[in-house]
AGRG4 protein
Amino acid sequence: MLNMVFLINSWLSSFNQPGLCITVAVLLHYFLLAAFMWMCLESVHFYLALVKVFNVYVPKYILKCCIAGWGIPAVVITIVLIINKDFYGNGSHSDSNPFSNFCWIQENIVFYISVVAYVFLIFLTNTAMFITVLLQIHSMKSRTQKRSRFWKR
């Protein structure tokens, strides 16, 4: 959906309908945040599968993942819309080319908080999960090598 909304964004912005442009910008923002949230959930699943291998049962795991994956971005979008729906709009880059318009976030501060900071937090989470998984794999490898040396003796 992110790709679809991105591809039709400039075409829809050429209609010069503020409501349509706000809707498209909100959808683009939402699907972008949702894509990154699902990437974060994949790293958490990776952690659970490789580090917490045994005795990890999370009741209604898929439901909780879906609520987080689709709900957290919705909360961010709702907060932005509650503060001011005019943060979204049509950003014209050129008057000579009508297809250079693009519906997106118009305020830099809102962009940095609701996109850049969000993605940065997910990047930190993914990095932490990745390092934890690497350390776990390394410790398993060293334990296996110690056992094989012991049995060879």
Remarks:
- The mean pLDDT is 89.
- The beta strands are 88-91, 102-105.
- The longest helix spans residues 108-152.
- The chain has one domain: 1-91+100-151.
